[in-house]
Write a structure and sequence with these properties.
The structure is a single chain. By secondary structure, this protein is of the alpha+beta class. Strands 1, 2, 3, 4, 5 and 6 form a six-stranded antiparallel β-sheet that branches. A three-stranded antiparallel β-sheet has the order 7-9-8. A hairpin with a 2-residue loop joins β8 and β9. The longest helix has 26 residues. It is elongated and about 60 Å long.
Length: 196
């Protein structure tokens, strides 16, 4: 369910919708967050770059996902990374004052918004746990378990970024686990091998 589905036609009139092109930068790191963004179509990432050229992907937001919600009421409401459009996208924006009005006047919207916050907090806790695991194999198994023993991925590179591992490290690990008959990898899906 998209959070906008909870709104009445009169409330939708106050929401700005933009069509954005792949590889464009929606907001730069340290820009003031004035609204939440709801991805109606496409995908965006929050990315920070280091002086040596390396990057860290803080989060990837897909269809029906929301960004800016953890910043807009913060005492420091500034983006921690660039908001990059990964593919042609359609995004709805709700400014802070309008968001407050909707939270006060629309209970269904408020409940969905609180669900988004709860899910975000859980995902953040999972990411902290993931990063606390130093072994690549243990980190992979933790991630596999958190995804109910089935990982759908776009590419090994994107999966490596989610796991905060080097691509080569993950490729070697997957090859090893396949040879040991511990996982099955087919059609961009990795599953835990079930007992015979």
């Amino acid at each position: 369910m998209n959070i906008l589905d909870t709104l009445k036609p009169s409330q939708l009139k106050h929401i700005e919708i933009k069509n954005l092109k792949k590889d464009s930068v929606l907001f730069y790191e340290n820009a003031l967050c004035k609204s939440i963004g709801i991805v109606l179509e496409g995908e965006v990432s929050i990315v920070s770059y280091f002086e040596d050229g390396n990057e860290i992907v803080f989060n990837t937001i897909e269809k029906d996902g929301v960004f800016g919600n953890n910043l807009i009421f913060s005492s420091s409401p500034y983006y921690k990374g660039n908001i990059i459009i990964n593919e042609d996208s359609r995004i709805a924006f709700i400014e802070k004052n309008e968001l407050i009005t909707l939270l006060k006047s629309n209970e269904s919207f408020m409940i969905e918004y609180l669900k988004i916050h709860s899910n975000f907090t859980k995902a953040l806790n999972d990411k902290i746990k993931l990063l606390s695991i130093s072994s690549a194999e243990e980190r992979f198994y933790f991630f596999l378990h958190e995804n109910r023993n089935e990982i759908k991925y776009k590419s090994i590179t994107s999966l490596a970024k989610e796991l905060y591992l080097e691509r080569e490290t993950l490729s070697r690990l997957l090859s090893k686990l396949i040879k040991e008959h511990k996982i099955v990898k087919k059609d961009r899906i990795i599953k835990l091998k079930q007992g015979d």
